[in-house]
Amino acid sequence: MAHAIGFIEVFGMTTALVAADAGCKAANVTIEALDKNKPGNADSLPVPLLICVKFRGSVVDVEMAIEAAKRAANTVSGFVIAHIIPNCALDTEKLTKLNCFE
């Protein structure tokens, strides 16, 4: 079975943790990584730090996790974008590890 990777970018660490928790409770997924990003226009954002939560699992589970994460993020400070890659290429897999919190 191919594994999917789902990404959701949210405003701030608190929102990221709430979204990650909701996604993991909604579906059989694991958290691949959390990435941080302070964009150039940070002062105009609701929270000046963007966090990308990466989920891994089956396509259906990742879809369910992303939907739950979106709903949860919207109860805190919102999300920027979400996307799912159904079957990652090997080179793309390597990129999911870049810029992670360690």
UniProtKB/TrEMBL annotation:
Keywords: Bacterial microcompartment
Origin species: Clostridium grantii DSM 8605
UniProt cross-references to PROSITE patterns, sorted A to Z: BMC_2
Database matches in InterPro entries: BMC_dom, BMC_shell, CcmK-like_sf, CcmK/CsoS1_BMC
Cellular location(s): Bacterial microcompartment
Full protein name: BMC domain-containing protein
Family membership noted in the UniProt record: Belongs to the bacterial microcompartments protein family.
Superkingdom of the source species: Bacteria
This protein's GO CC annotations: bacterial microcompartment
Domain BMC, chain residue ranges per copy: 4-97
Any one Pfam family match given in the protein's UniProt record, by short name: BMC
